[in-house]
Amino acid sequence: MKARSGNKILRALRLVADIAVPRFIREDVALAYRDGDPRAADSYDIVCIAADLRPGEVPDAIATADSFVWLNAGITWRLSNLRVRRAP
Fold first, then answer.
1. HEC states along the chain?
2. Predicted TM-score (pTM) of this structure
């Protein structure tokens, strides 16, 4: 029984560390075309991270987002490696 309570404590500590420790992350995000030049990243809005796309969903574009995350909130400061999937 002690092993189970130890696992719960470790999970709780990981959760607290995940929320409280500031970090920089890089991940692929799905984009929806808004307007403007289809080759420019500022012509798109971020919809979700690419890992959350359902099977069969095809976003207008995929890009790599660099973000700062702290207290479970993120601020994206750069989109790079824009890959257009569908012509707008």
1. CHHHHHHHHHHHHHHHHHHHCCEEEEEEEEEEECCCCCCCHHHEEEEEEHHHCCCCCCCCEEEEEEEEEECCEEEEEEEEEEEECCCC
2. 0.72
